[in-house]
UniProtKB/TrEMBL annotation, chains A, B:
It is found in: Cytoplasm. Belongs to the RNA methyltransferase RsmE family. Residues 25-66 form the Ribosomal RNA small subunit methyltransferase E PUA-like domain. It comes from Rhodovulum adriaticum (Rhodopseudomonas adriatica). CDD domains: RsmE-like (cd18084). GO terms for cellular component: cytoplasm. GO terms for molecular function: rRNA (uridine-N3-)-methyltransferase activity. Residues 82-237 form the Ribosomal RNA small subunit methyltransferase E methyltransferase domain. It is an enzyme of class 2 (transferase). InterPro entries: Alpha/beta_knot_MTases, PUA-like_sf, RsmE, RsmE_MTase_dom, RsmE_PUA-like, tRNA_m1G_MTases_N. This is Ribosomal RNA small subunit methyltransferase E. Its main location: cytoplasm. Keywords: Cytoplasm, Methyltransferase, rRNA processing, S-adenosyl-L-methionine, Transferase.
Length: 244, 244
């Protein structure tokens, strides 16, 4: 029970990790490790805090309501995603959860639900979506967890747009007419995915007029919003991200 | 109620469509149109049969157990996807459904569940997966429905491999080492996505030795099988398909 190969659980913890560091477990984590996974003192997990890479950590204390891990050695360095935000209009619950999971897996640095003219959602459960991003990072071997922002109006986001960040704007009305990302500059970017009903005429006009916006086509078929999110993240990572 | 803009329903039908053609409705279709959508005689739908494009069709008869449409005019020509097959190892039900839906949306011509060494699924519900492909085509404006094959062993599929078809093989062990599709030839292709547990050593050796196989990397993160399927379809469509 002593090496990395025997660690069957990856755990995101909020406490900073480091050599010899003690890490208190939350009640939920203790329940998962000791009741669900039937682990005990001496067993090892892989832990990451989103900032210090991945660590082999051994259970030093176990209890029904808590426990302690002790970090033994770093198993992987921190791997930051590129400086890419995903902006998307929330859709039905399962598909919104899916978008957050996939954005975390595919390496978005920040996930921002935005309210557009045709967005049905009035609010989101930010805590629930953040938990999905954590779980996706735990599952896919990530050492970083993207921040899930609170729901903001698209108008507000565009009005406060940070200087120097480019926007890849995927619009189904662009079928066959979008630009390629092939010669676009690297640096901070965001991807914007519209809601199932598309953007309103006013939104589309505004987006097209933005000097930092790059309209991109995702092929000749109309894609659902969740498909478009995964396809757009793939297109961007291939052209400008860390896939090459 | 006479033009294409008022058609709120897209319907896949098995009967061949054409000018003036009468189309009998199944019991399920009649229930959907007349009970769920509360349509009646004179209302219009968009219908496609997977071979004749999309047609504006008007309800001529409506009943509880059936009804008839009459084709009035073709609204879109048939758009065939590229000659691309998606081979994937079935995973949990919801994620398998998702892969089929996304493959139909992203333009795969055939969807083939394959049993690998580490595939848990002993069988699939081919009829249910085919229905998902139909629903995805109805939703996304497609005029073609990819065929969902029955579950076959990967070994059998590879032993019967059709001459001239290339295989894009996505293996998480390839991180950073895959070839690019940039200069690969167009023509018939298949994408192969492994199960959550990856390929076995023997499978990997066999796949790598195949003269028609192109190993491709999907970036530095480990992707879930369903994410990998969408990302791989996107990469292929961009490089060799109909997105350009």
């Amino acid at each position: 029970m002593s090496d990395i190969g025997s660690a069957k659980v990856r755990l995101y913890v909020e406490q900073p990790l480091g050599q010899g560091q003690s890490v208190p477990l939350t009640r939920d984590q203790a329940h998962y490790l000791f009741s669900v996974m039937r682990m005990g003192v001496g067993d090892v997990v892989l832990a990451f805090d989103g900032a210090s890479g991945e660590w082999l950590a051994r259970v030093a204390e176990s209890g029904k309501r808590g426990g302690t891990l002790v970090c033994e050695s770093q198993t992987r360095p921190l791997q930051m995603p590129p400086d890419l935000w995903l902006l998307f209009a929330p859709i039905k619950k399962a598909r919104t959860d899916f978008i957050v999971e996939k954005a975390a897996e595919l390496g978005a640095a920040r996930i921002c639900p935005v309210q557009t003219a045709f967005t049905n959602a009035e609010r989101i459960r930010q805590d629930r979506l953040q938990a999905h991003a954590v779980e996706a990072a735990e599952q896919c071997g990530g050492t970083y967890v993207p921040e899930v922002c609170n729901l903001q109006k698209l108008d507000t986001v565009l009005a406060d747009w940070p200087e120097g960040r480019r926007l890849m704007f995927c619009d189904e009305a662009l079928v066959g007419a979008g630009r390629s990302l092939g010669d676009a500059p690297r640096g901070p970017w965001a991807i914007l995915i519209g809601p199932e009903g598309g953007f309103s005429g006013a939104e589309r006009d505004r987006l097209r007029a933005l000097p930092f916006a790059h309209p991109v086509s995702l092929g000749p078929r109309v894609l659902r919003a969740d498909t478009a999110a995964v396809a757009a993240l793939t297109v961007w990572q291939q052209a400008l991200g860390d896939w090459t």
